């Protein structure tokens, strides 16, 4: 059975927008083997979930849908506090 090719950035964007209250503020970029997700202020907790379950589920789905030879990671790109 052939696998459908899906873009990990598009899938991550869709999943992250489905979780947060302000989907228009979600930004997703790919840096090497890592897909970085940035959300609106104060919404990091919604993306992480209780005990990290939501972000872990997003990682699992993105890895399952992507090329098995590409070892992807999904990470939260939080703004740095100065």
User: What does the main sheet amount to?
Assistant: 3 strands, mixed
Taken together, the total number of domains comes to: 1
- Helical content band: 25-40%
Helix/strand/pairing class, anyone?
Answer: alpha+beta
Strand content: 15-25%
The third-level CATH topology is GMP Synthetase, Chain A, domain 3
Low-pLDDT regions: none
Number of strands: 3
Strand order of the largest sheet: 1-2-3
Protein name: KH domain-containing protein
InterPro entries: KH_sf_prok-type, KhpA
GO molecular function: RNA binding
Keywords: Cytoplasm, RNA-binding
Q: Could you explain the architecture of this structure?
A:
With 82 residues, the chain is α+β, with helices and mostly antiparallel strands. It has a single domain (8-70), classed as GMP Synthetase, Chain A, domain 3. 37% of the residues lie in helices and 17% in strands. The chain has three helices and three strands. It has helices at 8-19, 44-48, 53-65; strands spanning 27-31, 34-38, 73-76. A three-stranded mixed beta sheet has the order 1-2-3. Strand 1 and strand 2 (34-38) form a beta hairpin. The protein is globular and about 35 Å long. 16% of the residues are buried.
């Amino acid at each position: 059975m052939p696998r459908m090719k899906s873009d990990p950035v598009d899938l991550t964007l869709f999943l992250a927008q489905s979780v947060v209250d302000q989907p228009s503020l979600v930004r997703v970029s790919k840096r090497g083997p890592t897909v970085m997700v940035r959300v609106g202020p104060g919404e990091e907790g919604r993306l992480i979930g209780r005990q990290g379950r939501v972000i872990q589920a997003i990682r699992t789905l993105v890895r399952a849908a992507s090329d098995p030879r590409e070892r992807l990671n999904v990470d939260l790109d939080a703004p740095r506090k100065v």
